[in-house]
Design brief:
The chain has three helices and four strands; from the N terminus they run E-E-H-E-E-H-H. With 87 residues, it is of the alpha+beta class.
Length: 87
């Protein structure tokens, strides 16, 4: 499965032998896989979002996620949700 690779610049090398020369950045590429239900975490710029339904893995846009849609609907219609909860 493809993922998004992000540059990670380290300011704390683990030993002096790994310390970069003056003016040279120590850069590594890492793959971050984060499982979340948080629409805020999912909104990370340029994130690739994958759903894992029974039919197979699919890549989706942020706005297509149920978490985004529910949160957006709640924020736009808070009173309606609170009325249902307080019945």
């Amino acid at each position: 499965m493809a993922g998004r690779y992000l540059p990670l610049t380290s300011g704390c090398p683990s030993s002096k032998s790994q310390t970069p020369a003056a003016g040279q950045a120590l850069t590594t590429w890492v793959l971050l896989v984060i499982a979340t239900h948080s629409p805020i975490v999912m909104a990370y710029p340029d994130a690739d979002i994958y759903l894992f339904p029974p039919e197979g893995i699919e890549k989706v846009r942020y706005e297509e996620t149920q978490h985004h849609q529910l949160t957006r609907d709640f924020l736009l219609h808070r009173e309606r949700y609170l009325e249902q909860l307080c019945k």
